Amino acid sequence: MKRSIFMAILLPLACTPALAAYPERPITWVIPSPPGDGSDSIGRLLADKVGRALGQTIVVQNKPGAGGVIGSESVANAKPDGYAMIVGNAGSHGINAAIYSKLRYDVVKSFKPVGLFCTTANVLAVRQDLPVSNVKEFVAYIKNSKTSLNYSSGGIGSSAHLSAELFKSLADVPLVHIPYRGATPAVQAVLSDEVVTMVGNLPPWLSQIKSGKAKALAVTTKERVPELPDVPTLAETYPGFETVAWFGLLAPADTPNEIIERVNKQINEALASPDIQERLKAVSCAPAGGTSEEFAERIRNDVSRWKKLAQEKNIKAD
């Protein structure tokens, strides 16, 4: 009996030094999208700052494909020791739960949220020379077109995909979805006139809009964004329209809470630093932060909302 009591006390104590020493080697953050996408640029920015605070290098590894499924599955099946995490987004860890029925992991149950980096709008963008200046003119342009018009996204299940489908439904316009392998080629498809529009994450679009290469017709958030104060919301034309993109860090489900809390603390400290705030502001991604539990609640709410929309519009990826 005494030996059992002694072992019960000793075992937790034996685990403590390993956790206390975390991290003892480089950490890998998987990006489930190609270089240049929002998850990539935001993830790399935070990886540098958080890695320095933790005293270890954070290796950023791009694993794009299937709307974030490939990268997500790799982390869901990784050893839950804090050395493999994923920079998820509203597509990979929200929408995918709604449109894929045969995932080999659970978007919610297979992960433990670590910390929310930032949130941003999607933007309804067109090339600069398209002869429209607002949403109503654009809708009329689509309806009057004698040829089929297409829209791009960074992949099936991305927030750009579902945001455009919601716009199609409310505006009652016949746009055809052309998925690309990430936001960067999807943006270029609009600029090169391969497609007519994209309702994409604002960070990859902001420089194109500011430089005059593209026009922003509307943003998808409830309120206008500070970086584009003259650009209306889609809700001003279609009341109730709202989609919000986000980027954040998640770990395999059984990762120890001590590790989650340690990394969460460094994420929040990084987001509070003036240099990170300035760099996020430059790409119109509002610093978020908060607890792991608050991030988990956002994901659950997103999944519920996207499932409802996908069922209503019969949107499926498999």
Quick one: CATH superfamily of the largest domain?
Answer: Bordetella uptake gene, domain 1
Beta-strand proportion: 15-25%
Determine the CATH topology of the largest domain. Answer: D-Maltodextrin-Binding Protein, domain 2
CATH architecture of the largest domain: 3-Layer(aba) Sandwich
Regions with pLDDT < 50 over 5+ consecutive residues? 4-9
Distance between the termini: 56 Å
Name of the level-1 CATH class of the largest domain: Alpha Beta
Overall pLDDT metric:
92
| Helix content percent band | 40-55%
Q: How large, in whole angstroms, is the Cα Rg?
A: 21 Å
Number of alpha- plus pi-helical segments:
11
> What count of domains describes the coordinates?
2
Principal-axis shape equals globular
Query: Which class best fits the helix and strand makeup?
Result: alpha/beta
Order of helices and strands: HEHEHEHEHEHEHEHEEHHEH
Largest sheet: 10 strands, mixed
Number of strands: 10
